[in-house]
Design brief:
Layout (H helix, E strand, L loop, with lengths): L16 H13 L4 H13 L8 H40 L5 H27 L4 H14 L4
Helix pairs in contact: 1-2
Length: 148
């Protein structure tokens, strides 16, 4: 059955897993098919006015999303700084001081350990390997692992 309207063209795309999950979640929330939601999103991206959206409202929504994202980053950074400060305080109050006879050797060993730490940190920062990424991978592995 052919209508007077032009037939839609088929498009196959590859999505990152987090984008796929987001698409599926939003489609389910709106009781839409994945394809219809993707089509609507592409239409809104290509022509915000033609898709029924107000470009100014779209821009404002994007700015609000960025503001929320920035607030989360600031909150996470604040938590990280407080965690580190608390750890340092606990460390200093729980580790006894060294006698003068052992202090020089401890300083030398501490300097060596610090140099190794900075080297390891530099290697880790030079790659995409981060502690948070490690945690997310562990969570994904645990989520896909059968119970038992």
């Amino acid at each position: 059955m052919t209508t007077s309207r032009a037939r839609k063209k088929r498009l196959s795309v590859y999505l990152e897993p987090h984008l796929w999950k987001g698409l599926r979640t939003q489609a389910a929330r709106r009781s839409m098919s994945d394809s219809l939601l993707a089509e609507s999103a592409i239409a809104a991206w290509l022509d915000p006015e033609g898709a029924g959206g107000d470009p100014k409202a779209s821009l404002e929504a994007a700015v609000q999303r960025l503001d929320r994202r920035q607030a989360r980053i600031e909150r996470d950074l604040s938590i990280s700084v407080e965690t580190l400060a608390l750890f340092i305080r606990v460390w200093f109050t729980s580790v006894p001081g060294l006698p003068d006879s052992a202090a020089a050797a401890a300083r030398a060993q501490g300097a060596e350990r610090y140099d190794r730490f900075v080297e390891m940190l530099g290697r880790r920062l030079a790659t995409d390997k981060r502690f948070r990424t490690d945690l997310e991978q562990e969570e994904n592995e645990n989520a896909t692992r059968p119970p038992g």
